[in-house]
């Protein structure tokens, strides 16, 4: 193909939850480990570049000489990979690296010491041990200035120690007098290179918890020379970063800048980096979030900046809102997140960002379904379904960020709560109204913050007037949605959800190892009462889908069968109950392994199923006397874990399907009903994701945008485009642009 069929529009991810997993290159790109991949991100234009597959990834650093063209990553698979930039692409350069690039090597250990090694005869030999720290040494980093080496080390003792290494022969002897206080020198000799000394330059105390990361400001070019600024950035579990440097007059090291986050229920920072020009600083936190600050050149103040965000564990499910303006995702990191395009006046580019975190739960999230423009139902590893509705603060902020027209009438907005907060030791988001904000402010003014009652404080909501995506701190505390209903009825943990096109009925299913627990439950979205129980399957129902016309409900199961339920006449049956219309058994089933996914064609004539047996099958005549397979069996080459049919036909009137595989690849197929099924000509492969576009682990869910065009764009030419969203076990959410008219 001359041009790629699928263009990556958005990638949502975060850093791994381990120290020293982020590196900021001299070219301006930020590289960070995310699950078993290396992500490359440009914070200046908020553009995601590449996803480099590393398989088992935990730590990463970058090294290069001259123009920055190489990146080094190390993983928990005991391998080190060197990536090299070639023709604008990044590829594997060498995956067997032995030895090191330094003449001097510093290692911090759990013995509270820093050990110095020097390379002699091709081998590193330990020559000196630096003592002083009183707990594990978490990070060490070198800098070079005026022919001397500066070493910074940080520890779990909350302190930072800065050492200076210099050639002893080059140092003039110091006259000893009673008025001179000389630091102790640790002297060692290197064969053939002379005598060297190490002195403790300073001890920096300012953090209140373990210091996990330190980073020297990168060297800068001034004229024909390269200068190393003596500025050191540190990051701590106390959720602060501090920029240190010596005073011009006294030379004493002092705190120059302190930034950080307050609130939330997370721990602090695992590492830090500084931009090449020194005007931006970055931290990555315990829950993987990136925190970015920039220095306002006019006022000299440091302000939070917009940065990429995402789940820090497997993303289990996602759903578009009915208008196709945003997506909501749920993951095993116990969060529900909302992403939308950010449209800015005067700028043509549109970037996607997380603007709300409606649910921060105590159980791993498993599934969700939208039941209105601003309402959804979610299920987790618990027996309860929870219903959430957007507060007024979100609706207004969403309109400002996406530049959408008025979304609700004035009366509807007035009736909404301002926001939501989570009670201490609770799991339910409680609505916060305007009157609550007034009383909350008065209560805070009169509280005794030393009282025992404030040891487990409620996470207070503060209304926001957002015109750009919120910071991580605000996402954690000020973007929750109120929980409006709990639904009880299942006996085990929730597994899948679906809602009909009219958003009047919700179907739910839980994990099951017996037929009595595998029944599908139907709920009314007006009364939130249980309408029906639909028993058929013997094991967990893995996915469900209502037909677009709302008359049929399809379910697929771990028992390798599917069931089709038909709705009664709504004119004569007020509850519009469902009855079993067709199903397969173990004897008649086409699939021989678990059926993972299913979906409907936009005309409700056909549905498709995908299975672990690598097969995809289309079934038709859904309104006729018999429901039978109407396609040849498509072998996709790997376990088919997700499938979705585009709601719009291709130019040749064929159906467009996206199939997600266990290996992370997404493949596009066109299917057209045919009389002759023996040749397999009814299926044609028309596109797939490349190595950088694919997920690195199982594709968990695929969803097409319910409207044509690209979200956030306008114009008649947009009808030639469709968008596909995917969720993966690699912690990543992706959105692809596909020009359907070119297929």
From TrEMBL:
From the UniProt record, list the WD repeat ranges.
130-165, 308-339, 534-565
Question: Nucleus: is it a keyword of this entry?
Answer: yes
The record's GO CC annotations read: cytoplasm; elongator holoenzyme complex; nucleus
Gene Ontology BP annotations = tRNA wobble uridine modification
Instruction: Indicate where this protein resides in the cell.
Output: Cytoplasm; Nucleus
PANTHER family annotated for this entry?
ELONGATOR COMPLEX PROTEIN 2
What protein does this entry describe? Elongator complex protein 2
Q: Which InterPro entries match?
A: Elp2, WD40/YVTN_repeat-like_dom_sf, WD40_repeat_dom_sf, WD40_rpt
Q: Which UniProt keywords apply?
A: Cytoplasm, Nucleus, Repeat, tRNA processing, WD repeat
Q: Which family does it belong to?
A: Belongs to the WD repeat ELP2 family.
Coarse class of the primary localization is: cytoplasm
Q: What metabolic or biological pathway is this protein involved in?
A: tRNA modification; 5-methoxycarbonylmethyl-2-thiouridine-tRNA biosynthesis
